[in-house]
Specification:
This protein is an alpha/beta fold. It folds into 3 domains: 103 residues, Rossmann fold; 74 residues, Helix Hairpins, CATH 1.10.287; 147 residues, Heat Shock Protein 90, CATH 3.30.565.10. It is built from 10 helices and 12 strands. The strands form 3 sheets. Strands 2-1-3-4-5 form a 5-stranded parallel β-sheet, sandwiched between helices. It has a 5-stranded mixed β-sheet with strand order 7-9-10-12-11. Helix 7 runs parallel beside helix 8 and helix 8 runs antiparallel to helix 9. It is rod-shaped, with a radius of gyration of 49 Å.
Amino acid sequence: MSREKILIVEDDLLTAKIISKMLTNRGFVITDIVMKSNEVIESINKNTPDIILMDITLEGELDGIEIAHKIKDKYNIPIIYLTADSSEETIKRAKITGPFGYLIKPVNEKILVTTIEITLQKQFLHNKEILETLKKANDELEEKVKQRTAELVKKNVRLQKEIKQRKLAEEELKKAERLATIGKMAAILAHEIRNPLNSIKINTDVLSCVEGLTEINKKRIQIIQTEINRLENLVREVLQFSKNIVLYKSDFNIKNFIEQIIQQINPDINSKGVVIRNFSDDIIVSADMEKLKQVFLNLIYNAFEAMPDKGVIEIKTEKIRNKINIYFKDNGYGVEHPEKIFEPFYTTKESGTGIGLALSQKIIEHHDGKLELVTSKPGETIFLITLPLNKKNKNEKNSDN
């Protein structure tokens, strides 16, 4: 049974009651019967109807058409005029309000019910169209929001990346400035130390040749000479670190290069039972051979001094696009305070100067490469050198890519 709600606006109470009974018998609900124009809006606000049956002649200041204008501006409720006024002028005024029907009283029950049902169907379709339009607009808005959100996420990711890169650049700049300051101070000190150190060495060598020295004095002179040699090495490394690095590049096979270094240092390494395994590939690099050798020797000897007897050092290469990665792995005790190892003058070795790794990193950076500590723990320490490949290797088809 239909339960649509209808508001009857009619100045004749008897006619209104007849229409009310007629529609109630058909299953409709009558929300109210209003006779005065100033009570229509109040009735709508109390119980909003689905349809309004509107008489044109009403009690009050406004007629039904004027009230219909107000309803149309504020509510989405279809209006059917039900009036005895069939004049052309009135019908013309009524059309402006966009009514769903204009029935002349007395109206036939069947015609009235049919008009109401058609109006309800039209309103249903109208509301459905509005809902579909709203849904489409909502879907489009949601899609735009998703797209905009995705764009903002991408921009945020780029911004975070730029901020991170900027921070890294600032840290690198601070590090470079700090190293430059240290280098200048160290160079000045090294120059100031060198002359008196040479004088001490000459006089110590003279004293060591004096006849009649006791064994205790000979040992004391030997200690002085050992310390002089250590200081000479420190001065030499400091001056080397403070100087601008000039590279003399050449093309060479990295596997053969590593093999030659191993053969050179094998007597020292084998004395402790340490084994070096060369897993490098035949890759041509363009670099300063002597300076690269200095870096490799530094990493190998550091590993050698940080491992027990019969330890293992592995050197492996990996070609990725236009770069070569060179890994130095050992099974030693690990690095203490890994965050400090590339700082100048930091060392954990009794005879170390603390310049070796800082200088090695500087040399690699001048090759447009990178030297870093990948991992360090008891039983596994890995250093990584990354170098750009020369033009020949860049043009090669690499099956590993």
